[in-house]
Amino acid sequence: MTETTGLVVGDDGRARPQWAAHDPLLRTYYDTEWGMPVRDEQGLFERLSLEAFQSGLSWATILRKRSAFREAFAGFDPDAVARFDEADTARLLADARIVRNRAKIAATIGNAQATVSLRDRGGLAELIWSFQPRETPRPRTVADVPTQSDESRALARALRKEGFRFVGPTTMFALMEALGLVDTHLLGSHRRGTSGVWDT
């Protein structure tokens, strides 16, 4: 590991942050998905939901359960999840393959309903992407990566106003990183600037 930056050069010669350097699942996620633009409603709802479930847990835990989450939540189709009832909640609470947290399950169902209701006002994608900042961070070290921003705080407020839950400013900054609204790949990472949203 490069002590001054936190980057780790893999056996393929590519530099990645420590969190994505060793676990094959996290490495693949970092190399192929994290930070790449997502603009479709269903994809955004899935990522919003998974970020909420991740709160207090490791991202690796959520990634390992992702296929089970998709099966349990109807592929994160907002229309389908918005119709979930008490029987569905009981089913989800009994499903050991996912994170069985009543508040997070209820929030996901409520967030699906909020996603559907947003359609006549531009939709979830338009709302989230409207908070893309004019500039992106340029972190040289892990310590330089922020955990919140003015935009993530404003996005959290806007989503709460629309009825979304588990959308705090730190969670929303993580969502913005995952979706490519900001590029927090470390300078020196092989993924820096690869999203097509930001030049460098």
From TrEMBL:
Keyword Nucleotide-binding assigned to the entry: answer is no
Instruction: Extract the Pfam families matched here.
Output: Adenine_glyco
Q: Does the keyword Hydrolase apply?
A: yes
EC assignment: the record states: 3.2.2.20
Record-annotated residues binding Zn(2+)? Answer: 185
Entry keywords, A to Z: Glycosidase, Hydrolase, Metal-binding, Zinc
Q: Name one GO molecular function term.
A: metal ion binding
Task: List membrane-spanning regions.
Answer: none
GO BP annotations, alphabetical order: base-excision repair
Broadest EC class?
hydrolase
Q: Which PANTHER family match?
A: DNA-3-METHYLADENINE GLYCOSYLASE 1, DNA-3-METHYLADENINE GLYCOSYLASE I
> In its UniProt entry, what is this protein called?
DNA-3-methyladenine glycosylase I
